[in-house]
Amino acid sequence: MPVELYCLEPHSYKSLGAPYGDSVSPWMLRGNVVDRLLAAQKHLKEIDRHYSLAIFDAWRPIRVQQFMYDYAINQECLARGVNRKENANSLELKEVFETVSKFWAEPSLDLASPPPHSTGGAVDLTISCAKGIPLDMGGEIDCIGPVSEPNYYIRQKEFIDHPDYLLWHSRRVLLSDAMKKSGFVQHPHEWWHFSYGDQLWAWVKNLQAAHYGAVEP
């Protein structure tokens, strides 16, 4: 990753024990994607020179996708009081999987449907100030729920009278605009997730095929 692009350390998934391995960096992306990130940062700085992109996560091998998918399922089960082992066929567990799958792609080995981050074309990021501190965007990265949707706050009836809602929405729009101007598309459920060249990108652009499949360095 170029030094112009700030990476949020320590890497969250590595800190959880995700199996990247000692010789693999989670900050890798396709060269064309990196070029577009630099362009997005330029757009961002035209609005405020103190702002920078802050990368939360980039390339993710299938084994890490599996680890984090299972982690997210377990955390959601814990939050809902669902025992994953004892309720293997329950409606409650099915609902957990449906909810988590809106945010975490299943760790498929199918070459026709790779998880976005496994392609090197997807990136999770936010905006940071001059000191490298991430701005408050009105919700944490990887938060599972409606608050993570890009336009969540503008849809709230309190939007006009709630200054924080106005601020958080404006910051999300700023990030989205900078990324879209550089050719990225945004995940419909995640304000932080953007991609170029993967299947989501191809679908949004109404193209017959993605540019990138899963890759291992």
Q: What Rg is obtained from the alpha carbons, in whole angstroms? A: 18 Å
What is the strand tally? 5
Order of helices and strands: EHHEHHEHEEH
Give the count of helical stretches: 6
**CATH top level assignment:** Alpha Beta
Query: Strand pairing plus helix content: what structural class?
Result: alpha+beta
User: Which runs of at least 5 residues are low in confidence (pLDDT < 50)?
Assistant: none
Mean pLDDT, nearest integer? 94
CATH topology: Muramoyl-pentapeptide Carboxypeptidase, domain 2
**Spatial strand arrangement across the major sheet:** 1-2-3-5-4
CATH architecture: 2-Layer Sandwich
Assign a percent range to the helix content.
25-40%
Distance from N terminus to C terminus (CA atoms, Å) equals 14 Å
Beta-strand share of residues: 5-15%
**Major β-sheet, in short?**
5 strands, mixed
Q: Give the total of domains.
A: 1
The best one-word shape is globular
Core attributes:
Muramoyl-pentapeptide Carboxypeptidase, domain 2, alpha+beta, 35% helix, 217 residues, single chain, five-stranded mixed sheet
